[in-house]
């Protein structure tokens, strides 16, 4: 559960980052477009969005006061995600939040100018969302659950654990 809390917090910070740089410059309400890869009735998706909103509030971004969050729920329907991505880009938000590889892909196809922050993307380099981890380039950045080159190391862990548990103290 702690890991999930950390990821949610990072998502809140990531989405707030482009806005924080301009926070002192205007009293204008900023707009965040969120494309969720959950159906609108999904309790986990609702909890993630609520956690995101809570973290933004902790950073001083309160919905209805200085930020507006336009969330769209695509579920696993890629055609619906494409439609919703066009709709969100049409709203001209200050930043877009993508919650998966498919949502990042459809948003990236719709805009190269609105910043996109992604979460839960397994291979952002292989998916060609970013150039590399240290310098993403372009208007897309975010957080990955695992770096692709580390996958082989993860496979080694069970073997090392087994050897360590069989070793005498």
Could you explain the architecture of this structure?
- This protein is of the alpha/beta class and 169 residues long.
- It has one domain: Rossmann fold, CATH 3.40.50.2300.
- Helix content is 44%, strand content 17%.
- The protein is built from five helices and five strands.
- The protein has a five-stranded parallel sheet, sandwiched between helices.
- Helix 1 (2-20) crosses helix 2.
Q: Which CATH class? A: Alpha Beta
Per DSSP, the total helix count is 5
Cα-to-Cα separation, first versus last residue: 31 Å
Strand content: 15-25%
The appropriate CATH architecture is 3-Layer(aba) Sandwich
Topology (SSEs and partners):
Elements (H helix, E strand, L loop, with lengths): L1 H19 L9 E7 L6 H16 L8 E7 L4 H13 L4 E4 L2 H10 L5 E6 L18 E5 L6 H16 L3
Parallel strand pairs: 1-2, 1-3, 3-4, 4-5
Helix pairs in contact: 1-2, 3-4
What's a quick, concise take on this entry?
By secondary structure, the chain is an alpha/beta fold. Helices cover 44% and strands 17% of the residues. The protein has one domain (2-166): 3-Layer(aba) Sandwich (Rossmann fold).
Primary descriptors:
169 residues, alpha/beta, Rossmann fold, five-stranded parallel sheet
């Amino acid at each position: 559960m702690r890991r999930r809390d950390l990821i949610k917090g990072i998502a809140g910070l990531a989405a707030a980052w482009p806005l924080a740089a301009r926070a002192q410059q205007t009293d204008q309400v900023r707009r965040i477009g969120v494309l969720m890869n959950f159906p609108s009735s999904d309790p986990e998706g609702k909890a993630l969005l609520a956690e995101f909103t809570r973290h933004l509030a902790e950073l001083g971004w309160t919905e209805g006061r200085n930020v507006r969050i336009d969330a769209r729920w695509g579920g696993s329907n890629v055609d619906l995600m494409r439609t919703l991505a066009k709709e969100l880009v049409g709203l001209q938000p200050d930043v877009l939040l993508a919650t998966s590889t498919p949502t990042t892909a459809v948003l990236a196809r719709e805009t190269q100018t609105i910043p996109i922050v992604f979460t839960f993307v397994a291979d952002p380099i292989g998916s060609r969302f970013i150039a590399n981890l240290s310098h993403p380039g372009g208007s897309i950045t975010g957080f990955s659950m695992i770096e692709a080159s580390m996958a082989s190391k993860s496979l080694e862990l069970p073997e090392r654990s087994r050897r360590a548990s069989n070793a005498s103290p």
